[in-house]
Amino acid sequence: MPRKPNTDCRRAEIITALQAVIARQGYEKASIQAIAKEAGLAPGLIHYHFKNKQEILVLLVRKLADYGQQRFEQIAAQAGSPEARLHAYLEARLGLGEGAAPDAVAAWVMIGAEAVRQKEVRDIYQQAVAQELLLLTALLGECLIAQGSDAGKAAELAAGLLAMMAGAYQLSSSAGSVMPVGYAAHAAKTYARLYLDAVPTA
Amino acid sequence: MPRKPNTDCRRAEIITALQAVIARQGYEKASIQAIAKEAGLAPGLIHYHFKNKQEILVLLVRKLADYGQQRFEQIAAQAGSPEARLHAYLEARLGLGEGAAPDAVAAWVMIGAEAVRQKEVRDIYQQAVAQELLLLTALLGECLIAQGSDAGKAAELAAGLLAMMAGAYQLSSSAGSVMPVGYAAHAAKTYARLYLDAVPTA
Amino acid sequence: MPRKPNTDCRRAEIITALQAVIARQGYEKASIQAIAKEAGLAPGLIHYHFKNKQEILVLLVRKLADYGQQRFEQIAAQAGSPEARLHAYLEARLGLGEGAAPDAVAAWVMIGAEAVRQKEVRDIYQQAVAQELLLLTALLGECLIAQGSDAGKAAELAAGLLAMMAGAYQLSSSAGSVMPVGYAAHAAKTYARLYLDAVPTA
Amino acid sequence: MPRKPNTDCRRAEIITALQAVIARQGYEKASIQAIAKEAGLAPGLIHYHFKNKQEILVLLVRKLADYGQQRFEQIAAQAGSPEARLHAYLEARLGLGEGAAPDAVAAWVMIGAEAVRQKEVRDIYQQAVAQELLLLTALLGECLIAQGSDAGKAAELAAGLLAMMAGAYQLSSSAGSVMPVGYAAHAAKTYARLYLDAVPTA
DNA sequence: AATGAATGAGAGTTCATTCAT
DNA sequence: AATGAATGAACTCTCATTCAT
């Protein structure tokens, strides 16, 4: 009778440990030894469960993307109007309120930075960005339709909003102390509101 | 016969070599060895001309910031109104037109990403961001005053615009293929235009 | 099947290797590479077992100090009077008799010399000297009390004796061939004897 | 007409620069670059005037030994009795009074430490020690003869005193803060006085 | 599955020495 | 004589990865 494999749970533990270390100390400090220590495991075990360090990172990106998707879906389910859903989305991504998961945000920023550096991370990151872009476009499209406008402008606005979000994330980590406090959610909402208002209604 | 000093030009060469390596391979790969090879120099010589790696990076950031400043001033010189100057600025930063210097942009993005990872780089990067925020705030303040509005809103808008710019930079390197082509300059101009219009005039 | 830890013995091996290299080639030549080679280990392993080179040296100093302490205690155990204990001490430190451990003496001298050069080594060395000074002062204090004198003069004599011992050590390594053979133990005993005799009894 | 060579003076300057750097920062920090900077010369010039770094050190040792010899001769010339000469000597070597030349003492200590490490320095250092031993023996011999004793014991006492002096020097640099203030001259004088008194007169 | 020791390449940095000018 | 750039080897230390147990 073979012993029950615990690989899945160990892998999850390790991924979570990477997230924690990245959020706390940055990717540079996230050595295998550090991850192992965070997870309370022996260094050698990491490479038993993962081919290499890269693989852990890839799976972490996937996990974070899934988490963001789920969080939005939760919020969106309770929203009555398209615009309420949009606000819920922006609040979920940029707000400092409950469920803000700074750990996940910090890790996400680190990964965004890492995507600039490593092709393999970049490939994964791009998929997550593309998915996010689709989601945001759909959200904005609904808003436009609800106000009787053409949904075609949604893509353009979505790209701008996404850039603003990505920038707010990055700057929160790289230059947080020189930016105003809590500007991001407000700026994004304002941008969206003004833009939507400016689109002519049919 | 004393030998003629060539430190200044060597230092410039080394800084340029760092920029090239960063743009091509990322900061991670920008080892002293790599910089030396790129510049065609012996590794030890790098440390003859610079105290440490950090110092080269600081000067590169300064160079890039100066370059951006100059490019803006060139364009702005021909601008008649505050708004024209603002457009010139956004075009200089985000536009794909002539003088776009993809090498410099790439290096800048890499440094921004590295700022997320390393405190030392972050410290340098923050200064540049703070300076940029000041410049942009002043620019927007002029626009507001020109239209008879209170300049107080400039800071808020500047932060949002800067985030959008930083995000556009980062995404151009980390997820360029999934973003619309050339959206950034347009989105930023639209955002600014709408925002300025919405501010009540005295 | 977890692997059995061997850290303790490896650390001891490395410390011993440092002692051997120092005794044979001096501290200057005691590079991590040299230590590793002496111990028959890979260089990287040294840093697996020790945080840095400094830590090895600290532990070596401690080991040598402990060794000296033990040797003294062994000899002193058989001593009946304070003066006999003092002689035992001086013999343990300066004598050429059995258990003289030239390896340890050589290492100690090298470390003393290095203490002159490097602040980090100096800090360690100072602690050992301070401890030795205390021990010697106590020993001399007992002698003074035993002869009915005031123990207050012990500190002064201890300092002089310690200097003589340190000098004898240093000269044995740096100018051994020009000094008389085995003068040190005799000179120290004579100095102590004359000094003690000169202190007035109550 | 050949230009007048200034080699001798340049060499002296460089040796003095080494002494200054050693006294201030220790031998370890006494790189060629540091010496050159201290002397206000170009690094390359050092190797024009000296074959290598070692050679400078050797000449510095010689200079310091000569200086010590001269200083003693000056003092001795004014001393009336052998014992006065001895006191003058010990004061000249260990005292903190005028003409103490802490620069020279510090450099001398560093060199003593270096003699432990490097054979070439050791060879030079030994000669200086031997010379010193002879001088001190002669001095003590005169004292013994003056009091009608056999001068044969002088060598033994000289060795002990020299060790004490060397140790006081070394400890002043390596563990100065844990030793009593100004103990050395007093201890040496006491040692000598007691010893001389103990030698039977004819 | 798991442990933890071991490896070896590569990082930044220092520096005695050489060399073109 | 003198300059100062240039070299290259050596240093300490880090770390992804492998391996014996």
Class per helix and strand makeup of chain A: mainly alpha
Distance between the termini of chain A: 69 Å
Element pattern of chain A in H and E = HHHHHHHHH
Strand content bin of chain A: under 5%
Low-pLDDT sequence parts of chain A: none
CATH-defined superfamily of the largest domain in chain A? Tetracycline Repressor, domain 2
Q: List the domain count of chain A as a whole number.
A: 2
The level-1 CATH class of the largest domain in chain A: Mainly Alpha
Sketch the major β-sheet of chain A: none
Task: Describe the model.
The structure is a homotetramer of 202-residue chains. With 202 residues, the first copy, chain A, is an all-alpha fold. Chain A folds into 2 domains: 1-50, Arc Repressor Mutant, subunit A; 60-198, Tetracycline Repressor, domain 2. The first copy, chain A, is 76% helix and 0% strand. The longest helix of chain A has 28 residues, at 119-146. Chain A is elongated, with a radius of gyration of 19 Å. The N and C termini of chain A lie far apart (69 Å). In chain A, 41% of the residues are buried. The mean pLDDT of chain A is 89. The interface between C and D is large, with 50 and 50 residues. Chain C binds a DNA duplex (21 and 21 nucleotides) through residues 1-7, 10, 31-33, 41-49, 51-53.
